[in-house]
Design brief:
Butyryl-Coa Dehydrogenase, subunit A, domain 1; homodimer; seven-stranded mixed β-sheet; Butyryl-CoA Dehydrogenase, subunit A, domain 2; 596 residues; globular; alpha+beta
């Protein structure tokens, strides 16, 4: 089984040639983020991911986490790898400089995160959730809270979690039962049970900072009565170091389909000391800071498993000899041809390639938006970046994980029977990837968020801001010598996107169920069109290089062929989603519960 | 976690009201297969599946199989359940009466097999493979071989396997290295290693009969030099009982993604004694008897996991309270509504329901063809049934397993985070189901078989025989008062099916890669149209009952709604597959291996 290698050339293509990250850094006055520095970070990140984390991926799955009397042990090597990650400053890359961070832009952090998470997704969750926790404290904490916790979370000395779900509620957080009772000293006593807490307990860091949703005794019912609390495993002492043990404990860890090296904990809080963060009853707002962060990260999970699976599948398809090419023997000296000669094997590999590289372009585009939202001096640009992020986040989360799962399933299929055997690693990619469509808001919830809140909730404004951009691109390229036909195809779909939305909006005024009935197909339609846009952007960039006589013709030609494949072989699915959602809610709502 | 219950009403609907199994039994002179007998068998089968096998499904997965010095132990309870299966005559149902079988028709066997395999797929593989082995011996063995082995395999006293795959070849059996050296007594010495041998070694029966593909020393190269051998674990003694141990051993068992309770063995044959079955160098022909049997069985696997997953998902969706219906509270007395009120949850359940019930109709139709091919006194009818089976087998195998996997993934999704946790059982359905698209010829190979061998290889004859039937049905129902619109839609797709095939055939004359480039999308297109045909047959039958004033209106209305859902929400995918395959081989074949 080949281990993951960061696809640096593909990454650089998107960073440099499609979106020009460097120009952004310059515009934002990030002079220290020089091309040399970026190059060095990418090279070192690739090494760390490939040499330290990738070798722990399968052993981590085999060994899993163990719990003994509330103490969770992570698989062999995980702790040491984490220490190396902290020591070498990977954890603090994008953290604020005032707390020991390096202040590097989020876009660069996301690229490094792609490497880390592709090499070993389960491992990457430990630092990944910490980043979300730190972001929430940075956005909503008091100065004291920031000083205390960010100085530990930023370098990675402590890690963090988010504790939302309870046994009887996940999506519907208004139902939570965890209680927070105010104390005389301004703190709170937190009591309740949280489940599915990723990295809720482990042996990798000296302390764990839980962000916990709970209700005050007199809180209003539903989501308007939820507050957020910082509940550390060890209470900070006077020097801000881990002090007294708080009364919370990991009751058990779940036995799961995959990401077995990531401890998924049941956390029992029993009069644990907590500190309010943000305003009373505004906990959900604070939590959304974490959740948006986590949703983009979860979207990346689709790409990460898809890429790792693709790399193994390509290697296998070049090695495995089986049958002859119908066009005549490709390796006449061998007993059979490598299976990469067969068109149906190529269909599977190209589907993976098209989704992975398209998803990477989508992800890096949002990464650049994160930079803009943070650094731009122009308020309108910042606001535009925030709006685009709001619009693209559910697409990233759901479309990238749906297509990522399809990619890993195909990567397993390329291996035939060997794909089903644990030793080859492909089945782990499928098992690990499967969770991405479920957690951080199921993909169905993302679809409702996209269509209900973001698109219809903004009276179409967020969608139009994006389709306008696509339209502009199409206008600019309508006369393209080789890609003009595809530009026309994209422009047509882009127009349909708006029309569809208007139609659903009209129907929803008659029947509110129409939104939920259309949402998942709308999300998938949106994803296919969005990826078509980014694929065409990549194709235009590749054609430019070819026209300029690039010495890397094979690389750029592959981009053009993959774009062609995407448009001809995958994009037709957009129409199937359109037709399905246009059918409306009727056939969905007719059956009584008993008729199922 | 609710355990599987055979959906008897749905099964009877297809058996009695859509295809009229009883009329077939009468026509074939199977007087003993009375409605009373059928009813009793179904009731008892449902009990055995639900009460004996289903409770062993999850424990079997947790425990798995173990090997110690060549001895394989199956999970607790498996052996006892097998004994009960044998004692109660389930194994011998369809076996020949001269060898202790009950001579019941294959159609009834398939229905019982659906129950058994839905309750516990891994367990069902032990008897399942035996049936294939017995079928091959019955078709190709000498009288002596039949007397010897069928008298043990038919009641299930011994079990059987098929040993094809070797480490370096699965699809490409021409490459096998296992050798068969003729001995003076007419037997052969078999030496070689076979892998992925399902149920190759276990503790459930007193002997195991391996059917092994091997090459004689002077055999021609490739598939024309393969012979088939009976290689029993214990050589039969003079009385036909298990005698001396043969020199073959299970070297190891695989660690797999799923079907963990089914022992997947590496079998080492070391000068093992084997007996030629069928003619020298005609082994593949003999093996195809087993493989066609196994392919239909594997297609059923898609339905079985889909159905088991659906039952759990519906129960969960009625129990789990989360959010309010947008149309107003459905359960105002509870803290939230059951999630079955939400349109997107219904979309998932209906997708499962539509695939499961459509696939069941397809499967039962082929079951009736099995009866026709075996019992019909009319040679033309027998030949027609054989042709239709040849045509439908790859569709059953691949389409039912692709859509079955989609169904199990949706059934997991309905559970949210709980779907990812082992204890709920839904993730096991996904892991177990995943193998069905891979083994017994990957789905890509089925697609080549359908388009290359069956459709184009018969100059379209096999396809036309089926599309003619669909066309006739459409003509007969074009004026249907309520379903006329769907009839027109089906008729249009049916016409496209033929046109598409002609186009591919023309292109393939220019470029042989066009077949492989089109095959998988062609298979999926074929599957969607085939299911549309069967759904419409079901809808017509349901409407008839409603028109006649049935007292089961809710049941029949659910059929009509599911048919509507299938046509409006799932069938549009057929067009996406059509568009994709019409794009041809170009974008698939352009890249060199290095460009991947």
């Amino acid at each position: 089984m080949p281990e993951y290698k960061a696809p640096l050339r593909d990454m650089r293509f998107v960073m440099d040639e499609v979106f020009d990250f460097a120009a952004g850094y310059e515009a934002f006055g990030l002079d220290e983020v020089s091309p040399d520095l970026v190059g060095a970070i990418l090279e070192e990140g690739a090494k760390f991911a490939g040499e330290v984390l990738a070798p722990l991926n399968r052993t981590g799955d085999e060994e899993g986490c163990h719990i003994d009397n509330g103490v969770v042990t992570t698989p062999k090597g995980f702790k040491e790898a984490y220490q190396q990650y902290v020591d070498n400053g990977w954890g603090s890359m994008t953290g604020p400089t005032e707390y020991g961070g390096q202040g590097l832009p989020a876009s660069l952090g996301l690229v490094i995160n792609e490497m880390v998470a592709s090499a070993n997704y389960a491992w990457s969750m430990y630092p990944g959730l910490s980043h979300g926790c730190a972001a929430a404290i940075r956005a909503h904490g008091t100065q004291e809270q920031k000083d205390l916790y960010l100085s530990k979370l930023t370098p990675g000395t402590w890690t963090g979690t988010m504790c939302l779900t309870e046994p009887h509620c996940g999506t519907d957080l208004g139902l939570i039962k965890t209680r927070a009772v105010p104390q005389a000293d301004g703190s709170y006593k937190i009591t309740g049970t949280k489940i599915f807490i990723s990295c809720g307990e482990h042996d990798m860091a000296e302390n764990i900072v839980h962000l916990v949703l709970a209700k005050l005794p007199d809180a209003p019912a539903g989501t308007k009565g939820i507050s957020l609390f910082i509940v550390p495993k060890f209470l900070p002492d006077a020097n801000g170091e881990s002090g007294e043990r708080n009364s919370l404990v990991c009751g058990s860890i779940e036995h799961k389909m995959g990401i077995k090296a990531s401890a998924t904990c049941v956390m029992n809080f029993d009069d644990a000391t907590g500190f309010l963060i943000g305003d009373i009853n505004k906990g959900l707002n604070c939590m959304f800071t974490m959740m948006n962060h986590a949703r983009l990260g979860t979207g990346m999970q689709g790409l990460c498993h898809g890429e790792a699976s693709y790399q193994s599948a390509v290697t296998y398809a070049k090695d495995r000899l089986q049958m002859r090419s119908l066009s005549g023997p490709a390796a006449p000296e061998k007993p059979a041809d490598p299976i990469i000669v067969h068109p149906d094997v190529r269909r599977m590999l190209l589907t993976m390639k098209a989704f992975n590289e398209g998803n990477r372009a989508l992800a890096y585009y949002t990464a650049q938006l994160l930079d803009k939202a943070h650094y731009s001096k122009d308020e309108a640009e910042r606001a535009d970046a925030e709006s685009q992020l709001a619009f693209l986040t559910p697409i990233c989360k759901a479309f990238m994980t749906e297509t990522g799962l399809e990619a890993t399933i195909l990567g397993q299929q390329v291996f035939g029977g060997h794909g089903y055997i644990r030793e080859w690693g492909q089945e782990q990619q499928v098992r690990d990837c499967r969770i991405a469509g479920i957690y951080e808001g199921t993909n169905g919830i993302q679809a409702l968020d996209l269509l209900g809140r973001k698109v219809l909730g903004s009276q179409g404004k967020l969608l139009m801001a994006f389709t306008k951009q696509v339209h502009k691109f199409c206008q600019a390229n309508e006369g393209h010598a080789t890609l003009g036909g595809y530009v026309k195809q994209l422009n047509g779909l882009n127009a349909q996107w708006g029309e569809l939305t208007t139609k659903i909006g009209m129907k929803a005024m008659q029947n509110r169920e129409e939104v939920g009935a259309a949402s998942m197909d709308f999300l998938m339609f949106s994803g296919y069109v969005t990826l078509a846009f980014f694929w065409l952007k990549m194709a235009v960039a590749a054609q430019q290089q070819l026209d300029a006589g690039s010495t890397e013709a094979a690389f750029y030609e592959a981009k053009l062929v993959t774009q062609e494949f995407y448009f001809k072989r995958l994009l037709p699915r957009a129409s199937a989603h359109k037709e399905a959602l246009e059918a409306g809610a009727d056939s969905l709502m007719k059956l009584s519960a008993e008729q199922f």
